[in-house]
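Hello Y.,

Per our agreement to keep a running log of every chain we model this quarter, I'm adding this entry. I've kept the format consistent with earlier entries: sequence first, then predicted structure.
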Amino acid sequence: MSVVKQIVFHPLIVAVICGTIAAAFHLHPPVAIDNTLQFLQGAAAPCAVRARGDGALRPFSGCRGKFPGIILVKLVLHPLIVFGLLMLFGPFVPECRPPRS
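Predicted structure for the entry above:
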């Protein structure tokens, strides 16, 4: 249960849930909060690049047994869950349509 709690309350997951709720109900934050969020949005990509660079320097010796499970979840289970949710809530109209020839 601890793992599920850590996943559900991970800051990135909580941010996505809050953003989805705000978009669904067309909530607009006050100007001061919106400006702060815009500032943080601009800093997200450089911070992610920095975090990935730092993680690449760590040794993998203690994690070797976890890789097959991580790969299975990331490349098989997660896409299947997303596909299932899309089928459940779909069909969706494409935003961009290719030009007709």
